[in-house]
UniProtKB/TrEMBL annotation:
It catalyses: ATP + protein L-histidine = ADP + protein N-phospho-L-histidine. GO terms for cellular component: plasma membrane. Residues 355-471 form the Response regulatory domain. This is histidine kinase. CDD domains: HisKA (cd00082), REC (cd00156). SUPFAM superfamilies: ATPase domain of HSP90 chaperone/DNA topoisomerase II/histidine kinase (SSF55874), CheY-like (SSF52172), Homodimeric domain of signal transducing histidine kinase (SSF47384). It comes from the Bacteria. Keywords: Kinase, Membrane, Phosphoprotein, Transferase, Transmembrane, Transmembrane helix. GO terms for molecular function: histidine phosphotransfer kinase activity; phosphorelay sensor kinase activity. Coiled coil: none annotated. Its EC number is 2.7.13.3. The modification 4-aspartylphosphate is found at residue 406. Residues 120-333 form the Histidine kinase domain.
Length: 474
């Protein structure tokens, strides 16, 4: 037996193992190389998709690059579709925004046009109404038969109703024009509520209604006159739309506010009318437009005053059972020495040897004022312009005891006319400035020179009260 050396026996096996190991290493190296190459391409594709998604987030159009990876390509197409969808959505939203702005501008323009119309209409109607009211009062002393007195009474009631309408239109137009500036003060709310309740007691009694009011001595911070107007309007509605039962006025302190509530047992408000009752001329259950039920402007004025004073007003109502309107007024700081309640003024008594100057370019108003003042015992000098008034005063040589002038005159304003007459006699003559205008110009000029401004039409009783106040010694 011939022996084989071990080296010869194991040599082929070692060579095979070396070849297999080397080949494995080569395949591993190739696999790693391919893996790195594919991972780099995949990373670039994912990075491109990330950049595209980031651009989409900024609102920019994404730009995904095409790859050989189907899922990445689908992601890129999804980003492009999303961008198109967002672009259409933004375009629709912008169109809606522009449409809303256009609608708002159109509504504001329509509201401004309405306010201008109301202001112009009320001004043009005030002049003839003023003369009618003056002459109706003058007629009283010339009417004796019961039939004529009754007819005159109905005439005056009709004129009063027309005056109320024009006054409400004036309030609406002035509030819309922004010329009403509230004067805030701290005051006991009972000093404001007391005179209002007293004024409506008789009206409620005439309808067999019970008017109740709970004691309220809280101090509020508000504009006394404007808040009183809100309460009067709400109480007026409560009396008007209640045929039987009780009207209650209460107030309570709640969350640093005083809540003044006016409740009634009237007809109530249907749910679908609750939002509309604040609109001008809208009235519940008055399709026939019965003027005895008002004009539908009271709550419109309340809404505007609520916004002006920042006194929220809410309403709760049950059809057939009644309504409760509540005003929320901020609490004030209690102060001593509250203002006294206003005292009613008696009609002007006849005077002796008093001299009045009346300046107005409307012949009928001029004649009406002249006749009224003469009936009260005044000597009256009339003029249609400042120059004419000064010329006739030179002839008279007597300084007037009071001046009544329209605001809008030929060549001059009533303010300038009054100032010229005062300068002529070197004395501060009591003066009344009459106007049918609704803008702020007359108010500002009157306030600047401390003149008493009166909006036409003014009733003879109101005019008498103003003259009596101006004639009273300081």
């Amino acid at each position: 037996m011939v022996g084989v050396p071990k080296d010869i026996y194991w040599a082929p096996l070692r060579q095979s193992l070396v070849l297999v190991g080397a080949g494995g290493l080569v395949f591993v190296a190739i696999g790693l190389t391919l893996a790195v190459w594919f991972s780099e391409r995949l990373a670039r594709a994912v990075s491109d998709a990330s950049v595209a998604a980031t651009a989409l987030g900024r609102g920019e159009p994404p730009s995904p690059r095409p790859t050989r990876v189907r899922e990445i390509n689908e992601l890129g197409r999804a980003l492009l579709d999303t961008h198109d969808l967002l672009r259409r959505h933004d375009a629709n939203r912008e169109a809606e925004r522009r449409a809303a702005l256009d609608a708002r501008a159109e509504a504001e323009h329509a509201n401004l046009s309405k306010s201008r119309f109301l202001a112009a209409a009320s001004h043009d109607l005030r002049q003839p109404l003023q003369s009618l009211m003056l002459f109706a009062n003058v007629l009283r002393s010339h009417v004796s038969s019961s039939q004529a007195v009754n007819s005159l009474m109905h005439l005056e009631r009709g004129l009063d109703a027309l005056k109320d309408l024009l006054d409400s239109l004036l309030d609406v137009s002035r509030l819309d024009a922004g010329v009403v500036n509230p004067t805030l003060e701290d005051f006991d709310v009972s000093t404001m509520l007391g005179p209002i309740l007293t004024a409506y007691e008789g009206v409620a009694r005439s309808k067999s209604l019970i008017l109740e009011a709970s004691p309220c001595s809280a101090t509020v911070r508000s504009d006394r006159t404007l808040l009183a107007r809100m309460v009067r309007n709400l109480l007026e509605n409560a009396v008007r739309y209640t045929e039987a039962g009780t009207i209650r006025v209460t107030c309570r302190v709640e969350n640093e506010h005083v809540r003044i509530a006016i409740g009634d047992t009237g007809i109530g408000i249907p749910a679908d009318h609750l939002a509309r009752v604040w609109e001008e001329f809208h009235q519940v259950a008055n399709q026939e437009r019965d003027r005895n039920q008002g004009f539908g402007l009271g709550l419109a004025i309340v809404r505007r005053l609520s916004a002006l004073l920042d006194h929220p007003v809410d309403v709760q109502s049950t059809l057939g059972q009644g309504s409760v309107f509540t005003i929320s007024v901020p609490l004030g700081i209690a102060v001593s020495g509250q203002a006294q309640e206003p005292v009613s003024v008696a009609p002007l008594q006849e005077v002796q040897d008093r001299f009045a100057v009346v300046v107005d370019d409307d012949a009928m108003v001029l004649l009406g004022l002249t006749t009224l003042l003469k009936g009260w015992g005044y000597h009256v000098l009339t003029a249609t312009s400042a120059d004419q008034a000064l010329e006739r005063l030179e002839e008279s040589g007597r300084p007037p005891d009071i001046i009544l002038s329209d605001y809008r005159l030929p060549q001059n304003t009533g303010v300038e006319t009054i100032l010229k007459i005062r300068e002529r006699f070197q004395t501060r003559i009591p003066s009344i400035l009459l106007t049918g205008e609704t803008g702020s110009e007359a108010e500002q000029n009157a306030a600047r020179h401390d003149l008493h401004l009166v909006h036409k039409p003014v009733t003879p009783r109101q005019l008498a009260a103003i003259i009596q106040k101006l004639a009273a010694p300081d």
